[in-house]
What we know:
The protein is mainly β. 9% of the residues lie in helices and 39% in strands.
Amino acid sequence: MSYDKPLPWKDPESAPFWDACARHELLIPQCASCGTFRFPPTSRCPHCHAPDVNWVRSAGNGRIFSWIVVRHPVPADVFGSSVPYVVAIVELPEGVRMAGNVKGCGVDEITADMPVTVAFCDVAEGVSLPVFQAAAPGTP
């Protein structure tokens, strides 16, 4: 496996997320006190400030909230071979928004509110990145 781009940094707050991605699962942190979902993972709930968290499996179905098409890579020596590519903000049913690349469709095919589903791209030993792809028709 050859991947020459930066890999995610696993810290104590994000380790459960990245460990789940390596298993091709999407887990979203939920406050154990008030039930608020949050992303990215944080040490305290932004709503009630409680430190306790439960990790809840998400189906990974969402909708494009916003996106950009990257046509000029920065830095060019790292991302130059990937252009053009899409970075989207995807709104998940849990109420959180998550950034990710959109794969499997043309960069000019992306639309607002487009249904997408999570997929995983294995990039290094034990490291999988969540990406999004157009959802099959009828997917919520």
